[in-house]
Amino acid sequence: MPKKKRAYFTVATANHLSYANMMGKTFKHFHPKEELLIFSDQAINKVKDSEILYRATPFFARQLFMESYTELCKIDADSLVLGNLDHIWEGDFDAGVVYKANP
Fold it and tell me: By the 8 A CB rule, do 83 and 30 touch?
């Protein structure tokens, strides 16, 4: 069985890049060896789609899968990682989502 290639990623425009960087610091505290990719304006502006920010997560996830990643986790840029995330990779499923909405 080939080794799985895993990455975490986020999407952040220039207005939200400071949030993404803060999330990255909290992420690296618990996962110093894991890869965190930030798709910023440079990547976003290359996409010829005026509505890309509404479909950025599946668009960039597909791009990463095509680059041979086998496992992905998208973290919102304005999130803080306050614990280890290794448990999200446990179990047998194709996709997982957070099932809690804020009112």
Answer: yes
